Amino acid sequence: MCTRLILLALSLSLAVAADPLLRLEKSADAMGSTYSIAIYGNDRVEMEAAVDAAFDEVHRLDEMLSNYKPDSEWSEVNRHAAERPMKISPELFQLLSACVAYSRESEGAFDISVGPLMKVWGFYKGSGHLPHRPEVLAALTKVGYRHIHLDAAAQTVWFDRPGVELDPGGIGKGYAVDRMVDVLRQKGFSIALVAGSGSSIYGMGAPPEEPKGWRVEIRDPRDSHKAAAEVFLKDTSMSTSGSYEKFFRAEGRTYAHIMDPRSGYPAQGSVSVSVIAPRTIDSEAWAKPYFVNGRQWAAKHKPKEFRVYFCEDRMEQPCAWLQ
Question: How many whole angstroms separate alpha carbon 201 and alpha carbon 275?
């Protein structure tokens, strides 16, 4: 009798273990982007609750980091940090500190203070237009991470000149995706794909049908109907910066929204860069300076744990992984 009960319990447990995982997909708009989650689990109610909590987190970040909302903490900093040192939340202080570090390490190719240039080029709430050179030069006087002063002891930020404006466009999606992943993990989930606008993606674990991870395609920048490469994300992230995302044409040239903060003009020479890194904030932040500084700089400066897929604006140079 005892042996029979043990066998019955074992068969029941195997039957439960053999049940296929449920899949849930949801999306929501926040921070000027569409965020999506595909998640696997055993309990649909718990999955719904975890996904909703992750979206609640990105909406919370929207209230803090948006430069479109006048009452956000980010907008308050832009308005008043040139007047006096402003005490800010520990979370925002940590994020701005990371941005200044990215700026320094990228030799200024990433710069969180690029806001005035994005406005003069029409990429703030627009598709862009060609400004006059005096407008660019005037905007450049307000750009530069060295104008941002952070006091760790006081948890304050101060701009040493008026007109400095921080733009969260270079790190906002990556940071939000990482925070959403943290929420899902805290809720006990380990298999999910989290994406911000499709350009900043994190793969948690591996889906049931693919033990290598989540299969993600890198778009061919010259043909939107083709994939240039495919990758498998397993507890890692990928972000892509491409000149095809937002651009305009003027006087026979194409100008994309990826700005070189040092020259005041959109970067030339690259068409797309994809970065695979452990954290999404890192893959998003570094995709831009690699794009701006070019293939040789990226190959020399990328950390060993990063993988970088580079497409240059030269037909004779194929897209390829940096060695």
Answer: 10
- pLDDT digits over 191-246, tens only? 999 999 989 999 999 999 999 999 999 999 888 889 999 999 999 999 999 987 77
Q: How far is CA 16 from CA 11, 19, 66, 207, in A?
A: 9, 5, 45, 18
Residue environment code for 111-136, b if the CB has 16+ CB neighbours within 10 A, otherwise e: bbbbbbbbbbbbbbeeebeebeeebb
How many C-beta neighbours within 10 Å does residue 100 have?
19
Decide if pLDDT at 13 tops 60. no
The torsion angle over the Cα atoms of residues 29, 119, 314 and 225, rounded to 10 degrees, is 20
Per residue in 46-95, pLDDT tens?
999 999 999 999 999 999 999 999 999 999 999 999 999 999 999 999 99
Cβ-based burial of 17 (10 A; exposed 0-12, middle 13-18, buried ≥19):
exposed
Residue-level pLDDT at 4 = 52
**Degrees, nearest 5: CA angle 275-277-280:** 90
> Are the beta carbons of 226 and 256 closer than 8 angstroms?
no
d(CA 323, CA 321): 6
Query: What CA–CA distance (Å, rounded) separates 111 from 103?
Result: 5
Cα-based angle 48, 51, 52 (whole degrees, multiple of 5): 80
Strand partners, 141: none
Q: What is the mean pLDDT of residues 295-300?
A: 95
Q: What is the pLDDT of residue 12?
A: 47
Instruction: Specify which residues 273 forms β-bridges with.
Output: 241, 310
Of 194, 196, 195, the closest CA to residue 205 belongs to: 194
The Cα–Cα gap between 36 and 51 comes to 9
Degrees, nearest 5: CA angle 206-212-213: 35
